[in-house]
Amino acid sequence: MLKNIWIRRILIVVIGVSIWHLPVPWELSQQSWQLFTIFFSAIIAIIISAFSVLSASLVALVVTVLTGTLTVETALSGFSESFMLLILAAFLVSKAVVRSGLGHRIALILIRKFGRSTLRLAYCITATDLLIGPAIPSNTARSGILFPIIEALSIDTDSRPDDASRSNTGSYLMMCGIVSLTISSSLWLTGMAANPIGVEIAAGYGISITFGSWLLAALVPCIAAFVLLPYLLYLIFPPSIQFTPEAPKKAREELQQMGRFKREEWITSGVFIGMVVFWGLASAMNLNLAIVAIAGLAVLMTTGVFQVEHLRSDGGDALEVFVWFSILYVMSNSLNDLGFMTTLGNQISQSLTGLSWQATYLALIILYVAIHYLFVSQTAHLLALYGVFLGVGIQAGVPAVLMALMLSFATNFFSALTPQASSGNALFAGSGYLESQDVYRNGLLVTVLNLIIFLLASPWILWVAQ
Amino acid sequence: MLKNIWIRRILIVVIGVSIWHLPVPWELSQQSWQLFTIFFSAIIAIIISAFSVLSASLVALVVTVLTGTLTVETALSGFSESFMLLILAAFLVSKAVVRSGLGHRIALILIRKFGRSTLRLAYCITATDLLIGPAIPSNTARSGILFPIIEALSIDTDSRPDDASRSNTGSYLMMCGIVSLTISSSLWLTGMAANPIGVEIAAGYGISITFGSWLLAALVPCIAAFVLLPYLLYLIFPPSIQFTPEAPKKAREELQQMGRFKREEWITSGVFIGMVVFWGLASAMNLNLAIVAIAGLAVLMTTGVFQVEHLRSDGGDALEVFVWFSILYVMSNSLNDLGFMTTLGNQISQSLTGLSWQATYLALIILYVAIHYLFVSQTAHLLALYGVFLGVGIQAGVPAVLMALMLSFATNFFSALTPQASSGNALFAGSGYLESQDVYRNGLLVTVLNLIIFLLASPWILWVAQ
Predict the structure, then answer these.
(1) Which residue of B has its CA nearest to A75?
(2) Domain count, chain A
(3) Does residue B29 sit in the same domain as residue B89?
(4) Which residue, A202, A302, B245, B323, shows the most beta carbons closer than 10 Å to its own?
(5) What distances in angstroms separate CA A448 from CA A146, A319, A377, A409, B342, one per listed residue?
(6) Average of pLDDT values for A344-358?
(7) Segment B417-426, tens digit of pLDDT
(8) What is the pLDDT of residues B81-117, one digit of tens each?
(9) Got the DSSP string for B286-303?
C-alpha cells in the first residue's frame, strides 16, 4: 500500500483518465463507459484508501453530473429509495435501543450465558440470525435487529467505536454481523428479498425449487459455514479481548442491579417486537419495510424515548452511510440500466466455450461472485446476471438445478464482499467499528471461504436436489 | 396553550379524525381531502407543540402511506429533490466554515466594526444579504452563505445552541436571517428562483416587468422593511445581550492573536468564494445549485478540512432538517398536484365578487399570504396560485401591474411565515437556536409587518410602475 495519500490520489486520477480515454469495448455506449470509469475509480480509491468512502462517493457524484454522464435527478435518485430510508430508520431505532437501556439488558443476558469468550458471543449472534432468517425475509431488516444487539454487546464488553478500544470486541463482532447475513440468507429461500426472484427465473428454465428443496440443499454448506466462519474470522481478524471468564458473573450482578424494566425499555421492547412482527408479515400484509421502521421510529420519538436531541447527536453516523450508500447505489444501478452489466456478463460467458461442464461451472460461479465488486445491490445483480449465467451453464452441460441453486447461494454469500455489497451491510459498515478497508479485506477472505465451502458442497447439492 | 402534552395530542387526533370524516367539499377527491387532513393536522400539531416538527412529520408520513393516501414512492420522493440536497450540503459546508476557524475570523471582523450592539450586527447581516441578493438568485443558496456567518457571530458573542445562552444573541440573529431573506428576495427580480416565473406569468396577462421596474417598485417598501424589521423584531423577540460596548476592542485583540490565515481557512475561503461565484453563475452555466454545494463539500472533505468524524458529530442537525423538510415538502406538493390548492384558490377568489377593487386587492393579497401556511415551497405556491389570483384581481379592476408586482413581492415576503415556508429557512430553523414555535410566532408577526409595509407602499408601486 502506497504511503503518501496524495500519490495514491494522483494514481487514481491517472487510472481514471486512462480508462476514460480507452477505446470503448463491446459496442458499449460512451455514457456507460464513462459511468463505469467513474464508478470503478471510486471503488479502487476506497480500496487503496486514497479517499474515504464518503469523499470518494461525493467526488464521483460531482464528476458524474459535471461530465453529463448522469442527470442530476438520476444521480440523486438513490436518496429516496425506500430501502435507503429503511437503513436510515433502522439505524436510528438501533440508537434508541441502546439509549433506552434495552440493548444493555439484552447484551447482559447474552453475556451472562455466552460471555466467557468473544467467540462464543459471535456464535450466539450468528445462531440468532439463522433462527430468525425464515421469518424476516429481508437481510436489511434483519441487520436492523442484529445491529443494536451487537452494538450493545460491544459497548458492554468495553469496546467503543471512537477509540482504540473498538478492536477489543466491536470490530470483530460487527464483521460477524456481515458474515452472519451471508449464511442466514443462503439457508432460507425466504431469507433474502431476491431469493424468490431467482427461483422464479430458474422456473423459466424448467427448474423447480421449493422452500424445502432449497433448505435441504443449503443445509450442509450453511452448517459448515456456520461452524467455520466465525472461527476463521476470529483467526484472521482477531478481537483484542478474547477470553473474559469473569464476564458472565459480572453481567449477572449488573443485571440484578438494573432491576426491573424501565418505561423506556418497555416501549422500546414493544417497538422492537412490533417491527420484527410486521417485518415478518410485510409481504403478506403488503407493508413497505421502510414504513414499518419509520413507524417504529415515530413511536419512539413521540413517546420521548428517542428525542430530537438524541437524533441530533446520534444522527451523523446514520447520515454518513445514507449519503454514500445512496450515491454508490445509483451509480451501480445506472450502470446496470445502461446495459453494461449484461454486456459484461455475456462477454464473460462467451469466453468460456470449449471447457468441460465442471470447469465452466467453476469459472461461472467465481466470475459471478467477482463481478459483485461492481454492484451495490444483491437484487440488481441477480436481475442482471442470474439468467445469463444460468443459461450459459445449462448450455455447457452443468446440471440445471445445481447451477440454479449455486447461483442463488452465491447471490447471498457474496454480500460480504464490500461494504456496499448488500444494504444489510450498511449498519455494520457505518457503525464506526469498521474501516472500509477492514470490510474489503475480511469481506474478500470470507467470500473466498464461502465460495470454497459452497463449491465443495456441490456433490451434496446435486445429490439431494436432483 | 394547553399545558399537558397528551391533552394536546388527543386534541390533534380529534381534529384530524373529525376533518377526515367531514363531507368532502368543492368536488375535491377523497384522496386530496385525506392528504389535506393529515397535513393540516401535522401543521396544527407543530404550532400547538403537541409534537416536535420531526415527530409530526414522521407520524404524518406513516399515516399517509398506511391509509393509502400516497404511495411509498411518492411519500419518500422529497428525499432526492435536489434543493433538499442543497440544504443538506450547505448545512455541512457551514459546519466546516465554523470548524475551520474562518467563520470565527469573519465574525470577529464584523464584531470589530459593528459589535457594539446586537442590533448593529443584525443590520450588518441584512445589508450583506441585500447586497449579494442580485448575484445569488436562490434564497436557499444565499441562506447557505448567511448561515455560517450568523452561526459564528452567535458563538463569538457567547451564544450556543444547546443551552440557555442561545437567547443571548443567537436566537435573534438566526430569526434575522429568516427575516432578511424576505427583504433581499423581494428587492431583486433575480433574488429568488421563482421571481422570473411570476414575471413570465404576468407577461401572459400583457404586463411587462423588467429588472429595473421591479427594483424601482420594490425600493420603497424594501428600504422601509430593511429599516424597520430588524428593529421591530428586536422589540418582539429581544436578544438577552443587547449592548456589548467592549466587544469591538476584544475582537480586535483576538484577531491579532489569531495571526495569519491557517491552511484550513485558506481552503475554506476558496471553497466558500467558489460556491458564491458558481451559485451566481449557475443559471448562465446551467449548473445545478446542489451540485455546486456538494462539490464544495467534496473539496472540504478530500482536503481533510471537514472530516468524516466531523460529519459524524455535526451531521445529526443536518439530518433532522433534511428528514422533516423532505416529508412536509412532498405532502404540500402532492396536495398541489391533486388540485387542492387550485380549487381552494378558485373558491376564495369567487367569494370576493361585488367588492371595490381596493377591497378585492386587499383581500386577495392577505388570502394569498395566509394560504402559504399550507405550502412548503415558494415556487409551488406561485405556480399554483399566482395566475389565479392575478386573473381575479384584474377582473375586479385592480391595476394589473400593481396586482402582479404585489403578488410577486408577497411570494417573497411570506417566506418567514413558518419554518418550512421557504427552503431558505431550513438552515436557520435547524440551527438549534430556534424552536419551531419561535419561528411560527415571530414569522407571523414579521409577515404581518411586511404585509402592512408593502400594502402601504401600493401607491408608490402604482405610481412608478404604470
Answers:
(1) B80
(2) 2
(3) no
(4) B323
(5) 24, 31, 19, 13, 60
(6) 82
(7) 999 889 889 8
(8) 888 888 888 888 888 888 888 877 887 887 788 878 8
(9) T--HHHHHHHHHHHHHHT
Alpha-carbon distance of A3 to B316, in angstroms, equals 33
* Nearest residue in chain A measured CA to CA from B286: A66
Amino acid of residue A330: V
Range of the domain at A305: 80-197+208-315
Report yes or no: B414 and B369 within 8 Å, Cβ to Cβ. Answer: yes
Which residue from B451, B441, B364 is spatially nearest to B410, judged by alpha carbons? B451
Pick from A110, A78, A131, A147: nearest CA to A293: A147
Q: Identify whether residues A63 and A91 lie together within a single domain.
A: no
Q: What is the pLDDT of residue B448?
A: 96
Q: Distance (Å, rounded) from C-alpha B2 to C-alpha B5?
A: 7
Residues A98 and A46 in one domain: no
Fill in the DSSP letter of residue B242.
-
d(C-alpha B71, C-alpha B63), whole Å:
11
Does B65 share its domain with B149? no
* Chain B interface test: which of A294, A313, A431 (most B C-beta within 10 Å): A294
Residue B118 lies in a domain: yes
B415 lies in some domain = no
- A325-340 pLDDT, tens digit each: 889 888 888 888 888 8
Write out the DSSP string of B167-223. GTTHHHHHHHHHHHHHHHHHH-TTSSTTHHHHHHHHHHTT----HHHHHHHHHHHHH
Closest chain B residue to the Cα of A77, Cα to Cα = B80
Beta bridge partners of A117: A243
What the block records as the C-alpha cell of B111 is: 464584531
Looking at A75, A97, A118, the residue that finishes a domain is: A75
pLDDT value for A1: 46
Q: In the structure grid, which three cell numbers stand for residue A309, read together?
A: 436531541
pLDDT digits (tens, 9 = 90+) for A415-452: 999 998 888 898 899 888 998 889 999 999 999 999 99
Among residues B360, B427, B438, B428, the alpha carbon closest in space to that of B394 is found at: B360
Residue B1 binned pLDDT confidence (cut-offs 50, 70, 90)? very low
The reply to whether A8 and A47 lie within a common domain is yes
Q: Do A79 and B80 touch (CB under 8 A)?
A: yes
Span B362-386, mean pLDDT?
87
Cell numbers given for B91: 448545512
Q: Do B80 and A78 touch (CB under 8 A)?
A: yes
Q: Are residues A187 and A60 in the same domain?
A: no
Residue A278 resides in a domain: yes
Question: How far apart are the CA of A40 and the nearest CA of chain B, in angstroms?
Answer: 18
Q: A22 and A153 share a domain?
A: no
- Contact between B58 and A301 using a beta-carbon 8 Å cutoff: yes
Residue B240 lies in a domain: yes
Per-residue cell: A400: 440445471
pTM equals: 0.82
Q: To the nearest 10°, the Cα dihedral for A90, B306, B317, B110?
A: 180
CB contact under 8 A, B312 and A317: yes
Interchain contact, A295 vs B51, CB within 8 Å: no
Residues whose CB falls within 8 Å of the CB of residue B466, separated by 6 or more in sequence, listed in order:
B399, B401, B402
Tell me, yes or no, whether B176 and B43 share the same domain. Answer: no
Give the closest-approach CA distance of A77 to chain B in angstroms.
Answer: 5
d(CA A204, CA B207): 64
Residue where a domain stops, chosen among A21, A43, A75 = A75
Residues of chain B with a CB closer than 8 angstroms to some CB in chain A: 9, 51-52, 54-55, 58-59, 61-62, 65-66, 72-73, 76-82, 84-85, 288, 290-291, 294-295, 297-298, 301-302, 308, 311-320, 322, 432
For the cut 80, the answer to whether the pLDDT of residue B381 exceeds it is yes
Task: Note the pLDDT tens digit of each residue in A258-306.
Answer: 888 888 889 998 998 888 888 778 778 888 888 998 999 999 999 999 9
Question: What pLDDT score does A3 carry?
Answer: 63
